[in-house]
Amino acid sequence: MKLCRFGEGRLGLVEGTVVRDVTAALEVLPAYRYPLPGFDPMIANLDKVVARARAIAAEAPAQPVSSVSLLSPVANPGKIACAPLNYQKHVDEVRSDAQIHHNQAATMAPIQTAGLFLKATSALVGPGQGIALRKLDRRNDHEVELAVVIGKTANNVRASEGYEYVAGYAIGLDITIRGPEERSLRKSSDSYAVVGPWLVTADEVPDPANLNLRIAVNGEERQNSNTKYLILGVPELIAFASSFYTLYPGDIIITGTPEGVSPIQPGDVISAYIERIGTMDVTVRAA
Ligand code: MN
What is the pTM of this model? Predict the structure, then answer.
């Protein structure tokens, strides 16, 4: 199932080029009162939401998916964990390009040494909201990545069991200001975490370790790779992350970008694709 969020908090079921408004399926969610949970309520109750969405889909109003403004399919992730250097050819390009590594080449270690970083949840947007670039005097880059949405609480999970904790997948754009500061600062500006265009439930992605992914800017291809080149794959990332902290339903892991990162400017249109997920177009503007 492909579940999207659109408009003013609507929930949609995507079928081909059409989206059905199944917002009423959210009525299965428990009523939460302050203090709100630190996990995403829809993802924590995804089985119930999906069952209700299926039940009401035939009667639900439909419209072209191209006519709606898509939000992040996860509204309230507790955290966005990111893999910094998780494709060898990207490690190589970072180490060889001073405009990317900013005199930190020696510390640009592969993921097993570098570990993960966090993007602020306030950076999260959907493709319909676009990217608002800051620090226009510096280089801002696109990074296309497979995004994994955690489906159930995961703590000290073994890699051999990692896939059991996945709710589904989406495309993630890890937009990045290049420079000397900590990654979490340079990659956490508002709108610098684009997730979408929808959540594809894990049952529709039989082999997440073999997905083509690519990105074009203004129609010109910049990155084109496959998740088979991930240094740490999806289950290994879940094991690694959950050895440091508990992962909760709705937490997002952005798995790292392949080679080909390059600058973006206000006015650009980005088109990102991942096999079995789809394509999302995102416009870039000045903040
Ligand atoms: Mn990245």
Answer: 0.97
